[in-house]
Predict the structure.
Amino acid sequence: MPVRTVEPLHLRLLRSLRDEGAVSRAELGDRLQMPRPRLLAELERLVGLGYVAEAGLAASRGGRRSTLVELNPQLRFAAVDLGASSIDVEVVDGRLEPIAAYTESADIRNGPKVTLQRVNELLHKARVDGAYERLHAVGIGVPGPVSFRDGVPVSPPIMPGWDRFPVRELLTREHGCPAVVDNDVNIMAIGERHGGVAHSVDDFLFVKIGTGIGCGIYLSGEVYRGTDGCAGDIGHIQLDSHGPTCSCGNVGCLEALFSGAALARDANAAARNGSSPALAERLSIRGAVTALDVAESAVEGDVACIQLIRDGGRRVGSVLAGLVSFANPSMIVIGGGLAQLGHILLAEIRSVVYRRSLPLATGNLPVVLSELGARAGVAGAAVLASDVAFGEAS
Amino acid sequence: MPVRTVEPLHLRLLRSLRDEGAVSRAELGDRLQMPRPRLLAELERLVGLGYVAEAGLAASRGGRRSTLVELNPQLRFAAVDLGASSIDVEVVDGRLEPIAAYTESADIRNGPKVTLQRVNELLHKARVDGAYERLHAVGIGVPGPVSFRDGVPVSPPIMPGWDRFPVRELLTREHGCPAVVDNDVNIMAIGERHGGVAHSVDDFLFVKIGTGIGCGIYLSGEVYRGTDGCAGDIGHIQLDSHGPTCSCGNVGCLEALFSGAALARDANAAARNGSSPALAERLSIRGAVTALDVAESAVEGDVACIQLIRDGGRRVGSVLAGLVSFANPSMIVIGGGLAQLGHILLAEIRSVVYRRSLPLATGNLPVVLSELGARAGVAGAAVLASDVAFGEAS
């Protein structure tokens, strides 16, 4: 319908410098199709605010050489990806290139105070190490539903103590800059769209298969978060009304049948009941087997492991087939820890999706692995942080 | 993210007159929060173009009485809803009130030429009957996927001969005005949002249960059509890998288990095998039983009929539970012919959705029947037609 979406000028300009780097004023004017006087005035303003800086002379195009402009080299954003059992922190520059990065294990169930205190310690450490003088924004993803507007988690099932905890407010106060809070799967989708395989794709699903299963949704070029911020919670779609009991209390949820936790359970069973010699050997050496053991044993040709992955792929595929019929996306990206199961998983997902969805919806539907892998989350948190900082420059 | 949606002034103004009727210039300025000189100039322009007219004097607010403005009383839109076996045509005025309405049986499989010729005949008849002098736009819904941008059906499964037929072009040429083509379920959702139970709701699903099953999707206040225009095709989501064969060639699709066609099949079986005395009696009188017989027999207390409806509700509910987890809408509207199964159906759908979706997503999720019933489709086609006509006034 005839509704126009207009991005404010300063946002287009700053995003262009972020995504395409230093540029002459003349080229920037061409790129943004903007009259020169208006562009020069806006650049002047953004230089004054400390967002934009001069960057030497451009190569000659004949005549007087033009001066390059770029994002202020002092711009710094913090990007945080909280997992169920991990903290990933990066400090990035204006072009979202990492200056410092920290990864460590941590249990989200320790609650918001302990967890966010650790995030703050890592960020202060980065400052002491020289990664930044001051932060211009912080972006953070958490493994549960979020009210994006309010900057708080909302009834997150695996995050006891986090319900409506003022995450954004705490980070803003601590670092003296704006902060933005989103769901872990949304930030992965944002990262993959900015710098990964979904670059510039407007309608796609990012399916994270890790400890649990969730889905980031891009529709018409925007993240779709739903009425309560919990859109994409596909791990609890029921596949089998006689299936195993899920952590949510229902039975036969996708996540109860296939996820990091379910695969570890099934792999240990296969090691013990003798159906998988490869897993049995790994179990005897290490005392437990994981999803990675299944992946490696499958590559070595262990039939039971190949079957475990295929069963999982079939289950994910049958949920995705329904979502493809519903949402008619133009790409599906598979990420999260279990993406390491690789081609066998992907082939099975594809096979089910292509067979079960409307042909029109799958005629040109790539189903692909995440390009950014474990970095997708922090990459997206950095994009969110820069967007919120740029938004302040109005 | 900081992206602003800006509706052009003329569109806001014309939509306001359409949806709220005659108004004084002063009130209109307040309503649209627009400076008076700009408003008066725009009104002047729209009067000149024939969209707006003077409508007498307003009641006094003290001082000089203000003149009312309204949409030109001569504005006429045609609204067409093509079903699998029906044609509904209305001619409406600027406020979308029906001036003339025609309903008749027709088989969509007769192809586009025969069907659209009949549509044109009905519209010419409306002119001869005095419903209009000229049409300002035509809106039409068809029972299959549509490329909204191109104005053509795309690989519609139950519409042989319609694939990429230039529906919009033909109607534009015939009636000398813009035309707009959409999917039948989308126009029902648009109608329900404009003048029904979903009034002003930004994120909702309109589930049509008729001969087949489909879903109109509103996200962030806009119809979401998907990459290929086939979003919402939920009738072919698989529920039971050992279920009956579907018209699409797969097995166990929702539509194969519950829809107008499936219910007629199951009702005739229940009449013949003796499980439903009420249906057996109706069968003996009329030679066949339909969904309406099931509805009436259930109200009379026939146990088998109540069970048939409950089974259907459970199946629809289990697909919707997954979609609620995925899309986190703020309302679900049930429409289409089988909505006549009424409260028993609705109660079962609600029960499954509330039990199986994430509590956060169902905490405040009304599941309600369509208010517009059989008129939802033409009502939405009229909204689309007026929007496209108003869009031309730029």
The CA atoms of residues 6 and 107 of chain B lie 42 Å apart. Chain B touches chain A through 59 residues (CB under 8 Å). Confidence is low (pLDDT under 50) at residues 1-5 of chain B.
